[in-house]
Write a structure and sequence with these properties.
90 residues; mainly alpha; 3 helices; 2 strands; globular
Length: 90
């Protein structure tokens, strides 16, 4: 699927997340919508996180051999990260 996230937004997200996956600290390769576009999620800083390819695929239901997280755990970890990241801003 073609990304709807503008390139400048990618760079802002990667910079905010130190160019690493928010779940495992590997090099980030993808930007993920926490609230999906289908559910009304938008291309905003508070709805996007940096993920490595493994965790991005995992959150979308693609299984990787040898990865210890389940899809549900991956999604929950992303949600918890977002809650923690923005808790101090409220």
């Amino acid at each position: 699927m073609k990304s709807t996230v503008p390139r400048q937004m990618y760079l802002m997200i990667f910079e905010r997340d130190s160019y690493t996956c928010v779940l495992c600290q590997r090099e980030a390769q993808d930007v993920h919508h926490v609230k999906s576009r289908a559910a009304g999620g938008r291309n905003t800083l508070d709805n996007l996180v940096s993920l490595c390819r493994i965790h991005h695929d995992l959150v979308h239901g693609v299984r990787w051999q040898g990865v210890e997280h389940t899809v549900a755990e991956g999604k929950q970890a992303v949600l918890e990260y977002i809650e923690d990241l923005y808790a101090g801003m409220l």
